[in-house]
Amino acid sequence: MALTTDSIKSFIQYGDISLAVRRTLDAALDTQDDDLVTEAISWSKQYHRLQNNDENPGQDFFNKADDLITRISSFPSGRFAAMPLLNVDQIGKSYSKGNFTLHPISFEIRTGDILGVVGENGNGKTTLLSCLSGDLAIDRGNIIYHNLRKADYYTIKGHVAFIPQRIPVWYGMLKDNLHFSAALSGVKGKANELMVDFMLERLNLSSYAHLTWKQISSGYRTRFEIARVLLQKPSLLILDEPLANLDINAQQTLLTDLRNLAKSVRHPLGIVLSSQQLHEVEKVADNVLLIKKGKCIYTTNTQNESAASNAIEIESNAERELIGNVLGAEATVQYNGGFYTIVAETISAKQLLQKLVNAGIEIQYYRDITNSTKRYF
Ligand SMILES: Nc1ncnc2c1ncn2[C@@H]1O[C@H](COP(=O)(O)OP(=O)(O)OP(=O)(O)O)[C@@H](O)[C@H]1O
């Protein structure tokens, strides 16, 4: 576990304590040593207590970190190996009412993969996700779930977890629902207590454990739902717009956590998530599908062959005419209400930026979108 513990040490060194705590919990779980997991949970609780009281961690906190890191690193590193999970071959779907059609689409997902599904409202993201989760029957094509012997509804449901955009109401306390969820997947007795405690800490829900659905915000309901389905150990986790109810920090935390969860040594999984937050999704996804009017018009897996020009996106108060004059015939400039999209075939994204800066144009925001789905939005 030397690699993992080295990164935890560096998070602590640079003050990224929250990240260090989350990674330590994951690494402790990967050791499968219950005592170590219990101690990591209590260390994490100490951190959250300090945070809630606006206090800085003291020496005892860092000593405990050293102790946990040393013990975790004495375990052999498990090896993550990507395995085929799902093959989606030319699937399509129409509804009995209305005109919408999801046109044939193909892709594959392996354990450890994150697939981002992006597109504007009403373009078919939820439809595609519901086909993958088994909630909607497909009209054509084939989905192969590699580690299932049968692909009937109940078997798929035991293997694929789907978190909808609007989290359904649950009854009773959050903690009891988690115990129930773990029990449904066969985790009983002490192991159930440990795993629920772990999940509450891991998703920073411990101080909400005794609250009900009505008493927590929509962002926390999303976190609760993630904790609940993870206790059922799915091999494919599908999340419909999970970022929608989260603040910007929580979005980053969730995406980094999903990245790590997918490649967990103990329980690797595939993840599919839909979102409007294109750039955020592109940062963590292995492949991004852009769906427009029910058609997959772009995937990042094929972009390397198709990106024949360079593109940047900038935010600037400069007039379009001035930008156009500075760049001349080498680039086309488009204004998209707030942003300029600039495309050029012969000059690189960096050179485009350089020219603008050299001409004294003030730029509030810049992004190289040469290989981004954003170009096709
Ligand atoms: N049960 C249904 N019967 C008929 N049409 C439907 C049904 N469900 C969805 N649609 C239509 O299918 C299209 C795609 O909807 P879908 O929810 O898949 O899009 P989306 O990209 O997820 O949108 P959003 O980002 O708003 O959630 C829409 O035009 C919607 O009206």
TrEMBL record:
PANTHER family documented for this protein: ABC TRANSPORTER ATP-BINDING PROTEIN (PTHR42711), ABC TRANSPORTER ATP-BINDING PROTEIN NATA (PTHR42711:SF5)
Pfam families (UniProt xref): ABC_tran
Family statement drawn from the similarity comment of this UniProt entry: Belongs to the ABC transporter superfamily.
Protein's name in the database: ABC transporter ATP-binding protein
Organism: Panacibacter microcysteis
Taxonomic lineage: Bacteria, Pseudomonadati, Bacteroidota, Chitinophagia, Chitinophagales
Keywords: ATP-binding, Nodulation, Nucleotide-binding, Transport
Protein origin, superkingdom: Bacteria
SUPFAM superfamilies reported for this sequence: P-loop containing nucleoside triphosphate hydrolases
MF-aspect GO terms: ATP binding; ATP hydrolysis activity
Record-annotated ABC transporter domain positions: 86-318
